[in-house]
Specification:
Length: 906
């Protein structure tokens, strides 16, 4: 029966706000609240598919985590208090104007985000460069894609990925380098899986020091030593030349610089390269053959190449292979970088790195500055180079930056060397944070917090990895006083202009995102990315389009360089000859392991959004350090044991796990955990050394050492209810513990979980405070304290269900208790356990692995899948009988791996 009082559900087509695949989503809503999402069957990026992150978008970003009103503090030691927009922006304009007058335009800076929309970016760029006169505007894309930008520009003449997603399906040999595509770009991986099953002759090579789930699809996996990619690519070119697999005609007609490169790679003999990369000669030869004999050769790459002090060289060395074999500018062929963030491409297009200007122009190029200044009708644009992300925070730490505006990003989680980042943020006199989530690590550093609209609440455009512009549409109003990013920026800019240039012609007369887009696209006319023929209405009519799309065009451009002409001075692509350079921190006696950081399937970057959904913690509930079985044995470590990880910059405590996907000498941590969920945060270990050209930091290669953490006192707590509120209240108290990890659990009834450990027992007063916040100090609480053993247990039971619990001293029963909580079951075993001096539950051991949810869509656990595989079920039968892998498919690679691992009984 239909409830006539309920508003009817509507559907709004938009774009996923997570990764650079740029999937189309259909938002199901009632005009005020989003109820669900599904994949847009019409969108050419995903044709209806979504991954586990995209399909749970409607479960994220609940109101309790949102910034709802402007908040201001007038002293670093004071708390922020609520204010109105007028007061907030007047204050910000006054502080910025004062700083500019006293210390010059370069005393202020903007640090923005690959998650902003194109219109937001454009407003920020005009504000910084045209109004203030500074190039101090950089984006978190600096951490993500700036090496790819340099790679494309140096080798091909413009920052333009030449391929499209269809090429992934059309390639004969596909080289995936430094990308766990199965986790980081799952929908593209689904497309690749489907193509490979249709054309089993397609060959897939994965180059990665780890055997990731992406390798499940690989015909060849080269587990090179981390950071040796340039040597590998030069070694491959050496073999391609030696075997006559290069395209001499293409080299002669369309490229320059080959002779120099040929000379360089002659030193990269197969024996030398195989030894340096620590791979077999056979595998090296096989890889060269698969590339050299392929009718169509495509390469895909991501952070493994980009986040490196040799990131630019790695990108160009890979592109060299395409130019030498003529594998570019035709179907199924070309170098194709996978973009991390949803609109990192839009940022590059609008000039949102300190060295760029809108329309793929250079801030260091006087002619480009003149063109943009003329278009904006200002006298000149600043010539002083702007600060890139790492340099910006360094200068802030030195006191040079007096006012910083951060938008839609979380540098207190994502930048390397977090101790230095915290010092920088504390040193800066005025930090503005324009952000949808008030819960991020950066929020505590903000002097002014400005609430921004988020996904589903704002309009604009984004460009995905294949140069395709999609419309982002608004389905529901933003909550509280939150406003779209472009509107905040434009409002601030007008107030600042009134102070800096009173009476001058207005620069920011925009009233909607369309106005910003229309002005911006004029700056692309005649450039390689010409968008002058595009607008939102056209995208509504024809669907998302790939640039260039000049005026008068009837459709976008699927592939670039089809005629062999490149946007360089000579019209030829350039071979780049750079020798292999080792990463900054090679192993030594003190730091004998190399730490790699990477992405998980169900979390996105710093967890601002995914950290609000308990369901997304089901796959991996806490950060764990992975070590190879050999290193585990060498250090006499057990699975789940707590270890201290030290780098030259900081240290943290995490549980360790044996992981046979790693080579000896390598360690791995997921990059998502900041200090909010893991004391210290993963990036307290990483280093800020950066590539000399792209200025992208080496986030994936830090020297570390691992030691047992002697923390005998353990703590575990769980509480259901408003998890964000509980997290906020409990996190500061738990700071006292040496090891501290927080996370969410559950589906229908989300709960906060706290795991901690310490060298000594916690003070009784601290435990009492924590118990009060957990609701375990009074009411229907069962309690047992055994001071002789240092053990304390508390369980709150309401309506025959556990609603909160706490273990102190030792926590062996935590999994069992969490199971009882999940099942909503209370029985006699609970009372018996409670009165026992030790809290281990009968029949189970401490080392028993925590189960996890492999299929998030259908809530199917790893143990259930393993049991079914043990009974002989294959993937198709698992889909039928358990339902796993039947919806978004993100769990398919892991299930395939389990099928290969679990022994089927005779
Ligand atoms: Fe979103 Fe997943 Fe598509 Fe990326 S692959 S855009 S995260 S649905």
């Amino acid at each position: 029966m239909t409830d006539l009082n309920l508003p009817a559900l509507q559907t709004t087509a938009s774009t996923c706000c997570y990764c650079g695949v740029g999937c189309g989503v259909l938002i199901e809503h009632d005009g005020t609240r989003i109820h669900g999402v599904s994949g847009d069957p019409q969108h050419p990026a995903n044709f209806g598919r979504l991954c586990s992150k995209g399909s749970s978008l409607h479960l994220t970003g609940d109101l309790s985590s949102r910034a709802l009103q402007p908040e201001l503090r007038l002293g670093k030691q004071l708390p922020r208090t609520a204010t109105d927009w007028d007061t907030a922006l007047e204050h910000a304009a006054e502080v910025f104007a004062h700083s500019i007058a006293e210390h010059g335009p370069d005393s202020v800076a903007f640090y923005i985000s690959g998650q902003l929309l194109t219109e937001d970016y454009y407003a920020f760029n005009k504000l910084a460069r045209a109004l203030i006169g500074t190039n101090n505007i950089d984006s978190n894309s600096r951490l993500c894609m700036s090496s790819a930008v340099v790679g494309y520009k140096r080798s091909l003449g413009a920052d333009a990925p030449p391929c499209n997603y269809e090429d992934i399906e059309l390639a004969d040999t596909l080289l995936i380098v430094g990308s766990n595509m199965a986790y980081a770009h799952p929908v593209l991986f689904r497309r690749l899986e489907a193509a490979k099953s249709q054309r089993p002759d397609m060959k897939i090579i994965v180059v990665d020091p780890r055997r990731t789930d992406t390798c499940e699809l690989a015909d060849l996996h080269l587990a090179i030593q981390g950071g040796t990619d340039v040597a590998l690519f030069h070694g491959l070119l050496h073999l391609l030349i030696g075997n006559g697999w290069t395209d001499r005609r293409y080299i002669d007609e369309h490229t320059e610089g080959f002779a120099e490169l040929q000379e360089l790679v002659s030193d990269y003999t197969p024996e030398y390269v195989a030894q340096l990369c620590d791979i077999s000669l056979d595998d090296l030869h096989s890889c060269a053959r698969l590339i050299g004999e392929a009718p169509a050769f495509l390469s895909l790459w991501c952070m493994g190449l980009n986040q490196s002090t040799a990131g630019s060289a790695k990108n160009s060395a890979l592109i060299n292979l395409h130019l030498a074999t003529g594998q570019i500018g035709r179907p199924g062929a070309g170098p194709f970088s996978l973009t991390g963030q949803p609109n990192a491409m839009g940022g590059r297009e609008t000039g949102s790195l300190s060295n760029l200007l809108p329309g793929h122009r250079e801030a260091g190029n006087a002619e480009h500055r003149r063109e943009v200044a003329e278009y904006w009708q200002v006298d000149a644009l600043p010539a002083t180079p702007g600060l890139s992300a790492i340099e910006l925070f360094e200068q802030m730490r030195n006191g040079k930056i007096k006012a910083l505006w951060i938008a839609c990003t979380n540098p207190a989680q994502s930048l390397p060397d977090q101790t230095a980042v915290a010092e920088a943020l504390n040193t800066c006199p005025f930090v503005v944070l324009q952000e949808a989530f008030r819960t991020t690590e950066t929020a505590k550093h903000a002097d002014l917090m400005l609430p921004a609209a988020s996904w589903g609440e704002k309009e604009g455009t984004v460009t995905n990895s294949e140069r395709r512009l999609s419309n982002v549409r608004k389905a529901v109003p933003a909550p509280g006083q939150a406003r779209p990013d472009w509107a905040i920026t434009v409002d601030f800019a007008r107030r600042l202009q009134a102070r800096l240039r009173p009476g001058s012609a207005p620069l920011f007369e925009f009233t909607d995102p369309q106005g910003l887009f229309d002005e911006y696209k004029g700056l692309t006319q005649g450039r390689d990315l010409d968008l002058s023929g595009l607008d939102r209405a056209l995208i509504d009519r024809l669907g998302p389009q790939q640039w260039p799309f000049p005026q008068g065009a009837g459709s976008g451009t699927p592939r670039l360089y089809t005629d062999g002409r490149f946007p360089t001075d000579s019209g030829r692509a350039r071979f780049i000859s750079e020798a292999y350079r080792a990463p900054k921190e090679t192993r030594d006696a003190r730091f004998a392991l190399t730490l790699n950081t990477g992405r998980l399937r169900d979390h996105w970057h710093g967890m601002s959004r995914t950290g609000t959904a308990a369901r997304l913690f089901g796959h991996v509930s806490e950060a764990r350090l992975s070590l190879s079985p050999a290193d585990m044995q060498h250090q006499r470590l057990e699975d789940g044991e707590l270890v201290q990880v030290h780098s030259r910059r900081g240290s943290l405590v995490v549980p360790v796990v044996s992981d046979d996907s790693l080579r000896p000498g390598h360690a791995y941590l997921p990059m998502h955990w900041g200090d909010r969920f893991l004391k210290g945060g993963v990036n307290c270990l990483t280093l800020s050394a950066f590539d000399p050209l792209s200025r992208q930091p080496e986030l994936k290669h830090a020297g570390v050492r691992v030691e047992k953490a002697h923390l005998p006192w353990h703590f575990f707590a769980l509480i259901e209810g408003d998890v964000q509120q509980h997290l906020e209240a409990l996190r500061p108290l738990c700071e006292a513990f040496d090891y501290l990890s927080l996370g969410l659990t559950g589906r229908e009834r989300p709960a906060l979980v706290i795991r901690a450990a310490h060298a000594n027992a916690a003070a009784a007063e601290l435990l009492a405070q924590i118990d009060r916040l957990l609701g375990l100090d009074q009411g229907p609480v069962m309690a047992y304290d055994d001071p002789a053993h240092g053990v304390g247990k508390r369980v709150r039971i309401e309506a025959q269900r556990i609603t909160a619990l706490r273990l102190a001293g030792e926590t062996l029963a935590q999994d069992w208790l969490q199971g009882l909580w999940l099942e909503g079951r209370v029985d006699d075993s609970l009372r018996r356990w409670l009165l026992a001096p030790l809290s281990r539950e009968p029949g189970r051991t401490a080392s028993q692995a925590r189960d996890r949810i492999l299929c998030n869509c259908k809530n199917v656990s790893q143990s259930a899948i393993e049991a079914a595989i043990g009974r002989g079920l294959d993937l198709a039968e698992l889909k039928n009988q358990l339902g796993c892998a039947s919806q978004c498919g993100s769990c398919v690679p892991e299930i395939k791996r389990l099928i290969n691992l679990v022994a089927v009984p005779e």
